[in-house]
Amino acid sequence: MASTASPTGRVFPAWPKYALRFTFGLIWLIDAVLKWLPGFRTGYSGMISGAGQGQPGWLRPWFSLWTNLQSPHPAFYAYLVAVLETLVALAVIFGVARKVSYFAAAGFSVVIWAVAEGFGGPYASGASDIGTAIIYALVFACLLTLAVYTGPDTFSVDYYLEKKISWWWKLAEFGRPIQDQPSTGGPVVREQLVSARLVEPVVAAFPVSLTAPEFPIVPVATPTVTPSPANSDRPVIVPAGRH
Q1: Is residue 150 within 8 Å of residue 101, measured between CB atoms?
Q2: What does pTM read for this prediction?
Q3: Which of 125, 164, 192, 225 has a Cα-to-Cα distance from 89 of 20 to 30 A?
Q4: pLDDT in tens, 94-147
Q5: What is the mean predicted confidence (pLDDT) over 174-185?
Q6: CB-side neighbour CA atoms (13 Å) of 132
Q7: pLDDT > 70? residue 209
């Protein structure tokens, strides 16, 4: 895959962000499929209530809140989790509203970590990890960072929707794509904009004025030609300043 120019003017290879996005989306899709199985709905209520077991006393109100909220209708919340994970998987794989999707999915991952996984605890003797959902949130943070530095994803639904819907880039990108910015000069102006953005880091590193003259310009007086008298065929040249 070809490299992509970022909004900062740097050039990055395109394949790492695609590899991370597709792989992570497949992981979420597998999680979503497992959430649609009957076993998840059957044990959902016990999983939520069991997350508070062994937790410190100052965290018990937090787990009691979520247990009391979901215990009347555990099947509804189990289906809700399955739907949300499916939407996250599809949004990541196909690249739909990437900026909004990554932020929302990162927040959803933190909620899973803080409720169903009990903050990865309790951190008593024998604890071996901090939970997986918080790592998911960090991966979404990496995807957001890549989106900032690499710009639009060619292999995404966003890439095509941005051409059809003028405001869609606000949901997908951290800056308006250069090819979508209005200009009156046609392709030449757009190429100049791209060149200017690529030159910005060089100008910042070597702050030399490109417009101001290096030396002052001294005006030079030019002689004026006046008509010669009627009895002469040659013009009379009057030096400057003696009009």
Answers
A1: no
A2: 0.69
A3: 164
A4: 999 999 999 999 999 999 999 999 998 877 776 778 889 999 999 999 999 998
A5: 62
A6: 3
A7: no
